[in-house]
Amino acid sequence: MTLEKTIKKAVEGGWKNNHKAITLLKGGVQFGEIENEGEILLHEQIFLDPLFWQYLGKAMGWEKQFNEYSELETKRLLEKGALIPRWLYRWHCFIDHLAESKSPKTFFENL
Fold it and tell me: What does the alpha-carbon distance between residue 88 and residue 13 come to, in Å, rounded to a whole number?
């Protein structure tokens, strides 16, 4: 997915926390460094918002998906606190991707 499609997907899922990003999407502005009301908004800032990831997960159907465990095993791991939601896992993968000096664009291309 492109960066713009990824953000649109989160908006479709209900993400409204960052009104600047939504306004920028409606205006068709290119992402990167974007000046909005005298403020520079980087797409990296959008992608570090946990609400962005929760709503992206909702739009992508990740709400109830976990790694490949049986239903019983998933329930047991959740009760122990040993399993995290798929959106949170993907967000952690994104942060690891950035830590390896890779760009947000290359992460979302494979999403």
Answer: 15
Helical segments of 61-85, H only: 71-80
What is the distance between the alpha carbons of residues 1 and 50, in angstroms, rounded to a whole number?
19
CA dihedral sign of residues 77, 81, 82, 88: positive
The label of the residue with tokens 């047991």 reads 76
CB 87 within 8 A of CB 62: yes
Alpha carbon distance 18, 31 (integer Å)? 14
Count of beta carbons in the 10 Å neighbourhood of residue 94? 19
pLDDT digits (tens, 9 = 90+) for 81-101: 667 788 888 898 999 998 999
Kindly give, in sequence order, each residue whose CB lies less than 8 Å from that of residue 84, ignoring residues fewer than 6 positions away. 92
* Unique residue bearing structure tokens 């947000």: 104
The pTM score is 0.68
